[in-house]
Amino acid sequence: MLNRLLHIVPAVCLLTAVAGGAPRRTFIGDWKLDETRSRLPDQMKVQSKGGNQYGFDFGGSVETITVDGSDQPGAGGTTLSVRADTPHTWVVQRKRDGRLLLSATWRLSQDGRTLTDDYREFEDDGSTLSMEYVYERAGGGSGFAADWESIKETVRSPFFIQVKEFDRDGLSFVYPLEHRTKHLKFNGEDYPNEGPQVSHGASSSGQHVNARTLVITDKSDGKVTATERVVLSDDLQTLTITQHVTGRAKPNVLVFRRSAT
Question: Do the beta carbons of residue 106 and residue 93 sit within 8 Å?
Answer without folding.
Answer: no
